[in-house]
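To close the chapter, one final illustration. This time we ask the reader to focus less on the individual chains and more on the assembly as a whole: which components sit near each other, and how the overall shape emerges from the parts.
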Amino acid sequence: MSLGPHADFIVAAYAVTLFVVAALIGWVMLDYVAQCRVLEDLEERGVTRRSLREG
Amino acid sequence: MPMIDLANPTRFLAVVNRVLPWLIAATAILFAIGLFRTMNAPDDYQQGATVKIMFLHVPAAWLGMFGWGLMSIAALGTLVWRHPLADVAGKAAAPIGAAFTFICLVTGSLWGRPTWGTYWVWDARLTSMLVLLLLYFGVLALYWTAEEPGRGARAAAILSLVGAINLPIIKFSVDWWNTLHQPASVFRMGGSTIDPTILTPLLIMTLAFTLLFVTLHLAVMRNEILRRRVRSMRLIQAQELHA
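The assembled structure is written out below.
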């Protein structure tokens, strides 16, 4: 596959897209782990949500 | 399960947890097919190999606008029905839509330099797309800086509805004004003007990116619901400590 005389522009476009998409996925995954950890920590301390208490 | 059950955050989380692995697998498969077809697509007779940038630029442009459309619908849910999941959906779509709008602008610039001879021109299509990115930043600022989340959500919902005016401007800018950007070539009256050897990988990549958007959106919504649970539990903890 030849990218011709403008290969730098094509590679840069794919690199930027890959970087932004990878950053989005990384942020989503790290945020999920962080929220789960805090929730677990709160539950271990005996804090429960109002809806669970009422149920 | 009736659709109304999804309005309950706990049931929504259960559905998301079940659906996400399938969505991730489908997205990965579509990207594998799309990238294979992209690599093997022929050069365009005018653009040469730079047409490969279009396989990123066109889906990103569509998703930048799709994200704002989604936020506008969610804004109606927030303002009219005051549904908490509508606000979660709107807030979750903002960073993803902003990321795709950014990709659209950067890949468009990288395509424009070899094709038009410039990275940027202040024509109607490019400028209205840049306005969309600035509107995304505005919504994100409202969500992230509001001291009271409910007030931030209402302000962001109003901006989402007002900003929706920009969507038809982006779409029809190439028809209403004399622009350097070419007119619509994928979805237009009379059918696409693109050769099937390029159109097919373009549509596969568009579908793959759209599935990626949906997957990320559901994952960010799940995170946001968990964040709100954490917030309410911390408030309960604080109240108990002071009691």
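Residues 25-55 of chain A form one domain. Helices of chain A lie at 7-44, 50-54. With these observations in hand, you are ready for the problems at the end of the chapter.
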